[in-house]
Specification:
Blueprint lengths: L3 E2 L1 H30 L8 H26 L1 E2 L14 E6 L4 E8 L10 E3 L3 H6 L7 E7 L2 E11 L13
Helix pairs in contact: 1-2
């Protein structure tokens, strides 16, 4: 299994790895050593917290390195009049009778609370390649389906303003 990522995604992950290795790791190692000096490790809460923070950092580095290693790099095409990656789309959800604006992004940059929807999500998959005026069925599961109408498409591009998500 691989993730489809853009060159910007890969660049942002490499920047985060670099920061975590060059800046955070030395700080966290120093914090572990300082906390270790406080005494008995079996009752040393500061040591346990410092060790957990160091382990989380190391885990994130391994995660990002694996993502880069297994990624399939994709190009972002204009897509003409149809929905493509990084486009801002206004849709009308017929089930909740509400209009909403979302942006289609790569899985690495998704954040539903900010309206950033992965192209791999049910909504993203359903919308990709459709045009204004299309009525599209979104299949969440075999028993849960609903329709959305595409009201507007604002063409977007891959930029560095969108942060990559944590885990």
């Amino acid at each position: 299994m691989y993730d489809e990522l853009t060159e910007v995604d890969i660049k942002k992950m490499r920047q985060e790895i670099d920061h975590r290795v060059r800046v955070l790791r030395p700080q966290l190692i120093e914090e572990v050593q300082t906390a270790r000096a406080f005494g008995d490790l079996s009752e040393n809460f500061e040591y346990k917290c410092a060790k957990q923070a160091k382990n989380r950092n190391d885990s994130r580095i391994r995660y990002l390195e694996r993502m880069i290693r297994t990624a399939k790099v994709i190009r972002v095409d204009d897509g003409g009049d149809t929905i493509n990656l990084f486009d801002r789309v206004t849709i009308y959800n017929e089930m909740v009778k509400q209009e909403m604006t979302i942006r289609i992004v790569t899985t690495l940059r998704q954040d539903a609370l900010k309206g950033l929807i992965s192209k791999e999500s049910p909504v993203g998959k359903a919308l990709m390649g459709h045009a204004v005026g299309d009525r599209v069925e979104v299949e969440v599961s075999p028993t849960m389906k609903y329709f959305v109408e595409i009201r507007a498409i604002e063409k977007g591009q891959d930029d560095e303003s969108l942060e990559i998500s944590a885990y």
